């Protein structure tokens, strides 16, 4: 089964052109099946780009996945057309009475700002608290992972000496963990962040377990003891061009930024990037959907 999205969402045509199996809502309504309801809190500025990235990796599953897009009401997005937001996004007040099988909280370009100084922090905290009773499992990405670890467990973030930027080798620490089923012992994943969480603080918390780390990039995948919360400090959903677009964007702004590591052949930014993380990206999201959402969620979402 494919991911089920609105017929007019721009990502639908893009993904179909890539031979990704998606289903418009009009066709999905004819199927007698209870789809998984996944809520995506999109905090990224280029929301249409992030939609395509996440829908691409959510589509690689035999389950029908129905996606609802959520934005904050306390911060006005400036890089996404208003008509797109009106047509496809809901605010928390519109959905807080509902229940969902899964929630994805994306990253956001606010890493160097204290959590409490982020304009939508109180609203995000309300959503994260709400998720504990209204969502079967929540998948946090990059800054979203740092925000979730801080809010739920008091894990602090620390500024890095330079941006963690590139594609890095990771190792599996818990090979029998369902989320990591099918992973190679070592695999690649992209990172793009200025801050980190520290292994010592996570190890000291009895409610958290580290599933995977990187010798260079540090903590990568952390799970709550009940597996209802997954924290991923990188961006497995990134497309082939994403790190390069971030690099050239910063170069054109006159910023000092190093070429993303292990991304371009011979670290030559004029060459085509080599994708080494695509299989991992599809696997982590399909494992999450299968083992931590589908296998755990009640048939009637009201039972949550």
TrEMBL record:
One GO term of the biological process aspect: L-methionine biosynthetic process from homoserine via O-succinyl-L-homoserine and cystathionine
InterPro entries to which the protein is assigned, alphabetical: Class_I_gatase-like, HST_MetA, MetA_family
Enzyme Commission number: 2.3.1.31
GO annotation, cellular component aspect: cytoplasm
Major site of localization recorded for this protein: cytoplasm
Active-site positions on this chain: 142, 235, 237
Keywords: Acyltransferase, Amino-acid biosynthesis, Cytoplasm, Methionine biosynthesis, Transferase
Gene Ontology terms for molecular function: homoserine O-acetyltransferase activity; homoserine O-succinyltransferase activity
Broad class of enzyme this protein falls into: transferase
Residues the entry annotates as binding substrate: 163, 192, 249
Site annotation Important for acyl-CoA specificity: residues: 111
This protein's pathway: Amino-acid biosynthesis; L-methionine biosynthesis via de novo pathway; O-acetyl-L-homoserine from L-homoserine: step 1/1
Residues marked Important for substrate specificity (site): 192
Subcellular location: Cytoplasm
SUPFAM superfamilies: Class I glutamine amidotransferase-like (SSF52317)
Signal peptide: none
Catalytic activity, as annotated: L-homoserine + acetyl-CoA = O-acetyl-L-homoserine + CoA
UniProt function note: Transfers an acetyl group from acetyl-CoA to L-homoserine, forming acetyl-L-homoserine.
HAMAP family xrefs: MetA_acyltransf (MF_00295)
Family, similarity comment: Belongs to the MetA family.
Protein name as it appears in the record: Homoserine O-acetyltransferase
Organism of this sequence: Alkalitalea saponilacus
């Amino acid at each position: 089964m494919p991911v089920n999205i609105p017929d007019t969402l721009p990502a639908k045509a893009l993904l179909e052109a890539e031979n990704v199996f998606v289903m418009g809502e009009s066709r999905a309504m004819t199927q007698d099946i209870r789809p998984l309801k996944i809520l995506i809190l999109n905090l990224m500025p280029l929301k249409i780009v992030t939609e395509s990235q996440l829908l691409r990796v959510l589509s690689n599953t035999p389950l029908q996945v129905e996606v609802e897009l959520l934005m904050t009401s306390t911060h006005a997005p400036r890089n996404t057309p208003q008509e797109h937001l009106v047509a496809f996004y809901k605010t928390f007040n519109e959905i807080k009475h509902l229940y969902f099988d899964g929630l994805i909280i994306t990253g956001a370009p606010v890493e160097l700002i204290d959590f409490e100084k982020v304009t939508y922090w109180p609203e995000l905290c309300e959503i994260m608290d709400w998720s504990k009773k209204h969502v079967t499992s929540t998948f946090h990405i990059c800054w979203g992972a740092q925000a979730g670890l801080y809010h739920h467990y008091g894990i602090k973030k620390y500024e890095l000496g330079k941006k963690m930027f590139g594609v890095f080798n990771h190792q599996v620490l818990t090979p029998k963990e369902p989320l990591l089923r099918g992973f190679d012992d070592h695999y690649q994943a992209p990172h793009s962040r200025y801050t980190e969480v520290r292994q010592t603080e996570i190890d000291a918390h009895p409610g958290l377990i580290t599933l995977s780390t990187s010798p260079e990039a540090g903590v990568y995948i952390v799970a709550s003891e009940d597996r209802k919360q997954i924290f991923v400090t990188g961006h497995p959903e990134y497309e082939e061009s994403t790190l390069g677009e971030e690099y050239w964007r910063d170069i054109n702004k006159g910023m000092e930024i190093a070429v993303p590591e292990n991304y371009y052949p011979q670290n030559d930014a004029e060459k085509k990037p080599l994708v080494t993380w695509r299989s991992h990206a599809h696997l982590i999201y399909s494992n999450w959907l299968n083992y931590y959402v589908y296998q755990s969620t009640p048939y009637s979402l009201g039972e949550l």
